[in-house]
Amino acid sequence: MNTPKPESARLRGRPKAFNDKTDQNTIKALDRAMHVLRSLSELENATLTTLAQTTGDPAASVYRILVTLQAHDIVELDTSDQTWHVGPGAFQIGSVFLRRTSLIERAREPMRDLMEATGETANLGIRSGGDVLFVSQIETHAPIRAFFPPGTRGDLHASGIGKVLLSAMEPERRAAILPSPLPRYTDATLSDPEALAADLTRIAARGYSVDDEEKNTGMRCIAAPVRNLHGEVVAGISVSGPTSRVAPDRVADFARQVIDAAETLSQRLGARPRAPRDD
C-alpha cells in the first residue's frame, strides 16, 4: 500500500534541482518554438521565408512550429499575403501576466490625467530582467509622438523609466544586470558607468529622471518612480515627446506633473504619502 506523501514533501512547482539549467532540463523543441515566437513578435509580421532567415532555422522546421502554434491560436496566418502574425491565444496567455497585479489597471486614470495635463504620451514600465518592459501607454493626440506599445522593451540605462528603476537599486545589483560595455545610441547616451552612476544619484535625490535624447535623437522623456505598500520602487511612469515640445524650459513643470502622477499611483498601490519636497 502506497502511503501518500505529506504536503511538505510534494513538489511545489519546481523540482529539487530547479537551479540546474543544463540541457537535460531544457526541451529543445520548445526552446526553438519560443525563439520563433519571440522573433515573430519582434518582426510583428513575417513570411515563412523571412522568419526562417531571421531565426536561422530551416524553413520546414519553422513551418512545423508555426502550424503547431496556430493550432493553439498562438499565431495566425494571413492568407491574403502569406504573412504570419502573433495570434489571440498569445494575448489571452499574456493577459494573465497583466492580471497578476492591479498596477496596470490602477495606472490608467493617473496616466490619462498626465497625458491631458502635459499634452504628451504617458507611459508605464517595469523592470524585466535587464530591460525596461513597457506595460501600458496613453497616447497624445499630437501628430508627432513617442510610441512604446505594451510589450516593447528598452535599455535601462538609456530610458527615463529605466534610469528611475536603476536609481532605486544598490550599486552591486545594478552592476549585475547592466551589460558591459553599455550600448551607446546617441551622443547623449550615458554609456560611461561613472557618468551613469552620477546621474542616478541626482535622480534619487530629486525624484525624477530625464532621458535627454539618450536613446533617440529629438525625443525627451521625464519619469518618476512608482512605489508599492512596502515603499519599494516597482515601476516608473513617464511622459515622452519631441524636444520641440518637451523643451528644456518646460522640464521642471513636466517633472512636477509626472511626480504627482507617480505619487497618485503609488498611493493607489498602498504606499504611504511622500513628504512634500522643498524644490
UniProtKB/TrEMBL annotation:
What Gene Ontology terms for biological process does this UniProt record contain?
negative regulation of DNA-templated transcription
Organism superkingdom: Bacteria
A Pfam family of the record is IclR_C
| Keywords carried by this UniProt record | DNA-binding, Transcription, Transcription regulation
Span of domain IclR-ED: 89-271
- Identify the residues that the record assigns to the HTH iclR-type domain, covering every copy: 27-88
* InterPro entries attached to this UniProt entry: GAF-like_dom_sf, HTH_MetabolicPath_Reg, TransRegBhcR, Tscrpt_reg_IclR_C, Tscrpt_reg_IclR_N, WH-like_DNA-bd_sf, WH_DNA-bd_sf
| SMART domains xref list | HTH_ICLR
Q: Which GO terms describe its molecular function?
A: DNA binding; DNA-binding transcription factor activity
Which NCBIfam families does the record cross-reference, listed alphabetically? TransRegBhcR (NF045644)
Provide the protein name: Transcriptional regulator, IclR family
